[in-house]
Specification:
Layout (H helix, E strand, L loop, with lengths): L17 H9 L12 H19 L5 H8 L3
Length: about 70
């Protein structure tokens, strides 16, 4: 979702990414409330964020470039 798109009303649990910051900046009528990620759920929260980033990035790459993005050698 880009900053030019509407942000449907609701309660969201998401990391404050550049994309989310852009959406919030584009909708000053919204009132965000931020909290800390507790140690118990941090691994899950961060892994979900990384999964979303990879899911968006991988289709833009050629198949032979995809492994290089996710493999750490």
């Amino acid at each position: 979702m880009s900053a030019s798109e509407a942000l449907p009303p609701g309660i969201y649990e998401a990391l404050l990414s550049e994309e989310l910051r852009g959406l919030l900046d584009a909708h000053p009528e919204l009132r965000p409330v931020f909290g800390k990620i507790d140690d118990e759920s941090s691994a899950h929260t961060y892994s979900q964020f990384v999964w979303q980033v990879l899911r968006a990035a991988l289709p833009a790459l050629k198949p032979d470039q995809r492994l290089g993005l996710v493999a750490h050698t």
